[in-house]
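Form 7-S
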Amino acid sequence: MLRHLGAKRTPQHNLKLATLLGLTAGFVNAEGFLGFAVLTTNVTGHAALLAEKIALADWHTAQVVALWMFLFLAGAFISSLILSLTGHNQRFSYFIAIFIEIIILLFSAVYGHRYDGTLVAKEIFAGSLLFAMGLQNSLVSMISGSVVRTTHLTGTFTDLGIELAQLFNKSKHDHPALIVKIKLRLVIIFFFMTGAVVGAYLFHHFGFKSFFAPISILIYALFYDIFRIKAKRYYQKTANAMKGH
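Output:
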């Protein structure tokens, strides 16, 4: 799901990636908004807010919003840099970026109750989540070859609309590939929305401790691939040993 790249990657790998990390982004989207009153999984809405603050000459707030947008960009840059430096062929090159994301979400889970609604607090908490989502969005995009994006739905809905229209325009020979793409878009949308709904429910009942839910999903995603590698190695060694006898 995380370690296969390029030709080794299958639609099933992308579906698993979309399921787990789309769910994670949905949780963070709802919990970040309810906890800090800021959209923390994309920067589209912040562009309009930045424009408004500039128009009203509210330079301090404009600086904060610009910082949020920069932090999302910085997260994407750092994630891409990590993958580039560690190398696409290394099995655990994705580990560092996801580990950083886990630490950031853990910060909100443990210290979120100290949030007092001030602009400085929003800078810290919302900014850290935007950085984490920039990390995740870049990581998922690079691993999947820009097929999967999990932190926002605008592009996903656009792609889904295009692909649904292509079902009517293209020959039946092309339909199987289109069906695979449509299925992936629907999975991303469904699990993002599921994460958002469940995240909102958990936040209303458990407050900032609800951030432990997306943390658990990320930890599961890491260990899923690690144990898959170990299980495959064990199977291959056992099979080779049996052949030797």
